Amino acid sequence: MKSLRAALSEGLIAYAFLAPALLILVIGLVYPLFTTVQMSFLDYQMGTPWESREWVGIRWFEKLWSDPNVWKSFWVTLRYGFWVVLIEMIVGTGLALALERAIRGASFFRTALIMPLMVSPIVVGLIWRYLFDARTGMINHYLGAWFGIDPVPWLADPHIALTSLIITDVWQWTPFIFIIVLAGLQAIPKEVIEASTIDGANWWQMTFLVKLPMIKSVLIVALLMRIVDVYKVVEVVFILTEGGPGLETELLALHVYKTAFLSQNLGYASAISMLLLAIVTVLSLFVLSFSNPMKTKSDF
Asked: Which fold has domain 70-299?
């Protein structure tokens, strides 16, 4: 058996290697989170001396609870996140299943599908803003030329503005799901596929009883990453609609931005950020619960 001194020495060496990563984690994550929590109990205006801050306790949380604009943004955020994540997971997984085999043209389509990921969010917003333009946009042009449909105010109509944002996000981030799921499918051992084929499994059985269950952890990771990312979207929404018309497309992340940098109320913006953090945390824990289900009696 190793001596106590040797065991402690190995432990210290391990922590020494982990120290830089832990330091970056503390600086980049823990400290900003602590500052946000602290700011949510303060009345502080951007640009004023730090000494001018005032402790207000839970005033901002009380205001948040009764603020109709916040709860409007809350429901818009939930609707947006639900449809975006649902569509991207279904379409991304479907594309990965269609292009996992070495068929003619698969490499071309794989490359073409990941190109939206290479475009920055600012550029994505500008591209789709011009495409959705009610007067000169290409979408309305082809809808009129091919189907005789009158110009649609995609970004100005409160009934379809959120749909326009969903279309934009699906175009940009479905390739992300596609790449992750495709990598998971290609990592499935060939022996498993061959055994299923020998047993007479058809495409439906092969997909839903063999392939997808085997990459369950990959699907959960992809779902979790999109949930975390979709609730902090700001740039694309700001460029396309700036939260309008009215508050129909004002996500909570954009509401936080406006409160902090336009209204310059950092305390209230921090309180709203805590609400957004709570939403993402609850949804993430819910998704993670599927990755580590409770053991059945047969496991003991």
From this structure: MetI-like fold (1.10.3720)
